[in-house]
């Protein structure tokens, strides 16, 4: 590639090469990605080529020359530690002509305001994974307005939607707010914003969208039927013998072999969700499809690199606790099995099945003690540092694979740990159980993580962390928003009940729960 660039320099200036064939090539990459002809991994490889090319050409440029199309401040909002999506945006936009100022994770509004004053960016990008992060974006937009900031703001994250952006975030801000569901959309929006004519059209389109949504919401509200009567609480059976755990001591697993964890990684989550593979990865790999094989080999190479790192280690902590339920409350007892050590107040479905997680434990009125398991897994503190190092060196694909592998390895460790806990509890899986069976939760009992539909309150992480004495045994901490840092960590409550199943609480159920807890 260096020879081709040197040959091009004989007839063009460096800036002409960058703004001409190189940018045209990246535009074609974007077109093919949007047409589902390329996957994320291939886009990252193209970005690597772009970075190499620009770095090779820069020494030949005049000091006054610049190939920068615009300046963007990026940040994951206060309380949120997830940065894999934000870093992908940095890579894509940074190699399409934008100068990126990446403020990192857990960035409060005041730091963003100071960064705006210092760097005077053309736009700001906000990222966040969970519902609390979406709410924080509303607060951040409000703080921007009070600080007199009105530059375009791009927002993205798993819990966000265009509707939330238009109806909740945008009204709190004096400038444009646009929703970017992925990195390539973010790039397209940035390009539009930097074109004055196209920017005016985009603003008009977003305003029209908001008006349409508001009108539809008004009609829906007027026609909304009265909520039906609440269904009675679920009658969950307890006509079976309670399995006793082998002990009630704290189990600390340090430096668990990653080689034992990797086989428990769900390929659909790793290759399709994180690495953007199109199609059925496992089937394509077995059939020898070139794209699947090449991506699989890249992942295996990064796995080998992970194994060689001293500060990337799989650690976990688990414990069984005597417990009972009382309505929607889970009571966790101390070692004596009588005095309550911690409590969890949980939501119940007002419709559908009337379920609550507390239903899966024996009621206190039964007179017999039940048991619940808890655990935390983590893939260590070295992942972010190494991923950032590789990104700075232009190893974009490896950096992204590493971050994705760490996230899914923490989930895989949770799968492995849950399997071991079932064995310890006395109802282990059969010898014929396959990883696919585990991914489909074809086993007795279930594990539930805070922040998800059945137990959405992240605040309950505090009780779990105290019960497991996490701060003394793992290098994992809770952020102000009760998320775990490092992000490649998983916590869960583990129930043995044979009828346990996953379920969702409605917004109304969650609001009622929050109201009751605030009044306690």
UniProtKB/TrEMBL annotation:
Residues 1-69 form the B12-binding N-terminal domain. GO terms for cellular component: cytosol. GO terms for molecular function: cobalamin binding; metal ion binding; methionine synthase activity. Its EC number is 2.1.1.13. PROSITE patterns: ADOMET_ACTIVATION, B12_BINDING, B12_BINDING_NTER. Residues 69-204 form the B12-binding domain. Keywords: Cobalt, Metal-binding, Methyltransferase, Repeat, Transferase. InterPro entries: Cbl-bd_cap (IPR003759), Cobalamin-bd (IPR006158), Cobalamin-bd_sf (IPR036724), Met_Synthase/Corrinoid (IPR050554), Meth_synthase_dom (IPR036594), VitB12-dep_Met_synth_activ_dom (IPR004223), VitB12-dep_Met_synth_activ_sf (IPR037010). One of its GO terms (biological process) is tetrahydrofolate metabolic process. Residues 219-520 form the AdoMet activation domain. This is 5-methyltetrahydrofolate--homocysteine methyltransferase.
């Amino acid at each position: 590639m260096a020879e081709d660039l040197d040959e091009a320099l004989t007839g063009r200036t460096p800036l002409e090469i960058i703004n001409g064939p190189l940018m045209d090539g990246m535009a074609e990459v974007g077109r093919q990605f949007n047409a589902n002809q390329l996957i994320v991994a291939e886009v990252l490889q193209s970005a690597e080529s772009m970075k190499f090319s620009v770095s090779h050409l820069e020494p030949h440029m005049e000091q006054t020359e610049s190939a920068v199309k615009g300046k963007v401040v990026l940040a994951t909002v206060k309380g949120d530690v997830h940065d894999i999506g934000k870093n992908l945006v940095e890579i894509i936009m940074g190699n399409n002509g934008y100068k990126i100022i990446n403020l990192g994770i857990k960035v409060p509004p005041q730091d963003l305001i100071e960064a705006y004053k210092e760097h005077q960016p053309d736009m700001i990008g906000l990222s966040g994974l969970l519902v609390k992060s979406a709410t924080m974006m509303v607060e951040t937009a409000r703080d921007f307005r009070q600080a007199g900031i009105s530059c375009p703001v791009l927002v993205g994250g798993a819990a966000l939607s265009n509707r939330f952006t238009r109806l909740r975030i945008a009204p709190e801000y004096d400038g444009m707010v646009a929703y970017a569901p992925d990195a390539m959309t973010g790039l397209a929006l940035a390009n539009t914003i930097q074109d004055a004519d196209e920017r005016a059209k985009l603003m008009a389109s977003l305003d029209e969208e908001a008006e349409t949504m508001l009108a539809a919401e008004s009609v829906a509200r007027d026609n909304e039927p009265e909520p039906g009567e609440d269904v009675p609480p679920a009658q969950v059976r307890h006509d079976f013998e309670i399995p006793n755990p082998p002990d009630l001591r704290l189990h600390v697993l340090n430096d668990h072999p990653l080689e034992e964890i990797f086989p428990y990684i769900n390929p659909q989550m790793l290759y399709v969700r994180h690495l953007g593979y199109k199609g059925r990865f496992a089937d394509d790999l077995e059939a020898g499809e070139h794209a699947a094989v090449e991506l699989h080999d890249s992942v295996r190479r990064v796995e080998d690199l992970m194994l060689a790192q001293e500060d990337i280690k799989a650690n976990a902590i688990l414990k069984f606790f005597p417990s009972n339920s009382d309505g929607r409350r889970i009571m966790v007892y101390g070692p004596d099995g009588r005095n309550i050590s911690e409590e969890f107040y949980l939501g119940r479905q007002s419709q559908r099945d009337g379920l609550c997680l507390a239903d899966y434990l024996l009621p206190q009125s039964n007179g017999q003690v039940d048991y619940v398991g808890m655990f935390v897994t983590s893939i260590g503190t070295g992942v972010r540092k190494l991923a950032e190092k590789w990104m700075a060196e232009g190893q974009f694909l490896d950096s992204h694979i590493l971050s994705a592998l760490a996230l899914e390895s923490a989930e895989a460790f949770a799968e492995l740990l849950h399997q071991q806990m079932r064995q310890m509890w006395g109802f282990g899986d059969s010898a014929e159980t396959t990883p696919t069976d585990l991914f489909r939760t074809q086993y007795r009992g279930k594990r539930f993580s805070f922040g998800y539909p059945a137990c959405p309150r992240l605040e309950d992480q505090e009780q779990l962390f105290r019960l497991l004495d996490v701060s003394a045994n793992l290098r994992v901490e809770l952020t102000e928003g009760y998320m775990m840092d490092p992000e490649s960590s998983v916590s869960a409550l583990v129930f043995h009940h044979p009828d346990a199943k996953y379920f969702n609480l409605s917004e109304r159920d969650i609001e009622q729960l929050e109201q009751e807890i605030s009044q306690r």
